[in-house]
What does this fold into?
Amino acid sequence: MKIVVLVKQVPDTFGERKLDTTTGLLDRDASEPIIDEINERALEAALQQKDADKSVEVVALSMGPSSATDALRKALAMGADRAIHVLDDSLAGADVARTTAVIGAAVASEGFDLVVAGNESTDGRGGVLASSLAETLGVAALTSIGELTVDGTSVSGVRATEYGTVTARADLPAVVSATERAPEGRFPNFKGIMTAKKKPLATVTLAELGVGDSGARSTVVSVAERPARTAGVKIVDDGTAATQLAEFLASNRLI
Amino acid sequence: MPNILVFVETSASGELRSNPAGALSAAAAIGTPVAVVTVSPGSGAAVADTLGKLGAAHVFIAESASAATLLATPQAAALAAAAAEYDASAVLIEGTTDGRDIAGRLVARLGAALLADAVALKRDGDRLVATHSVFGGAYTVESTVEDGPVVVTVRPGAFEATSATATPAIKTVALDADGSASAVIDSVVEEKAVSSRPELREAKTVVSGGRGLGAADKFVLVEQLADALGAAVGASRAAVDAGWIPSNHQVGQTGTTVSPDLYIALGISGAIQHRAGMQTAKTIVAINKDADAPIFDVADFGIVGDVFSVVPQLIDAVASKN
Ligand SMILES: Cc1cc2nc3c(=O)[nH]c(=O)nc-3n(C[C@H](O)[C@H](O)[C@H](O)COP(=O)(O)OP(=O)(O)OC[C@H]3O[C@@H](n4cnc5c(N)ncnc54)[C@H](O)[C@@H]3O)c2cc1C
It folds into this structure.
């Protein structure tokens, strides 16, 4: 079985993330680029399949600027067998539709039984890529899954929604997306880090994938930075803090 | 006026969900609102009337035996059919877990562009311009699609219901959903909503609890204050990870983004990822026993104190004010 795990490099959410206010694109120098935590969970789900069955092949795939190699190396160090980097200058600022078309072409040319993605990236938060990719590839999408169960022919899991939980399954080939409730990614060990350097990391361009540039595109019209919030009053509880807070809330018509 | 489709989510048993009134009002501001629902055969008539009351000028009912058993594909097929039927210029879908799946499929199916997580929408000539609140509200970004079909996911709770009641024109079609490339739903467990409590995304007041509550049975303190204030219950990721509360209550970077009039954080340190989901609240109150907790940097009223002594007193003080 071949599992393709989608990996995105994002600005570290622990730092201050910035947009370039003229282009609306991410200011890549402002914060440290890291592999998105949700992709580590997606990869972990795939690696657990490999732990159980050595014949499973795990391929990490990323579309991104040259620095995305670091995210792929991390995936290799965690245990992926090989990596594919879709790298093309014309992809800077690509919107969801274009990203889906490009990743779709790369996944289709690679071949797959299962694609595992995160349910949403921390920088984009669109949360539509997995289902859009499934539509592009003509396969089922089983999205927002906490813990995956994969057998030779199907995948199943429980999906948490705003309204409760849904148990669902799909025949392979399929695209699945993992949520934060999926197990955390493993730490690469020393051996993993050493062997990662020797594992294959292929770079592909759009010309090689044969994807053109058609279809509607979204573009940024304006970007404005909001002033940061400032702290108000802070009191130390001396037994009267609750009453003072109730006064504050009442005088601001909040209760 | 161009026709604007609004996808309306329904439960497995066919009841309306989420906030169709807000999304229909958003559509009415930019065109003629056409509500689209996908239901099991025979259950469409009941919702059409309600959707008219919420302002839909047209209601497109796609009846399919697989409406509640296939994941997102019948809904995407219904919207694609409606887009052709009404020659729609845009499709609005609430950005819930299901809504985003439907939007993803539809974008690929129509060759459309996506405007994701809109908090406001306006028409500028023949373009549609969406406003997005990015990086936890640190930036306000406007985006558009120059040319071609547009799918918009709208942030749940961001749009007020402003439309007047309409008498909609109703069209019902039978939809043949092809299940060969779709996930199949085996079972659904609806979370029992505490009926007296508002929904997190819509609430004017939110009371959230974090790791500082210490244990599952102590998390009830958060619920007690919420009920005293008529508030929704939120949580930090640490509280969700601990299993004290279901994940759909998580506020933050990877949870729900809320923008209530009042947000009260109990035993929450205020990690940057938590703040990303609540720092656009009008008024923020924090109670934390660590005077250096970062939550105080964004709090309008902070109390350095123990939630277990301050919160019960607060509940009493609120009761005596009412
Ligand atoms: C990619 C990513 C996404 C994330 N997304 C989210 C998200 O969406 N939402 C989110 O919340 N977090 C998110 N996090 C996690 C975040 O970094 C923090 O770990 C989390 O918010 C901490 O939760 P907490 O404040 O409840 O716990 P802690 O940070 O442990 O804070 C507990 C607080 O309780 C206080 N306390 C303890 N006892 C008492 C008492 N008796 N009375 C008063 N105060 C007390 C302590 O002083 C402390 O400040 C994310 C992290 C990553 C990496």
User: Anything to note?
Assistant: Chain A touches chain B through 85 residues (CB under 8 Å). Chain A has one domain: 2-209. Helices of chain A lie at 37-52, 68-78, 96-110, 129-137, 190-196, 206-209, 241-251. Chain A is about 30% helix and 30% strand.
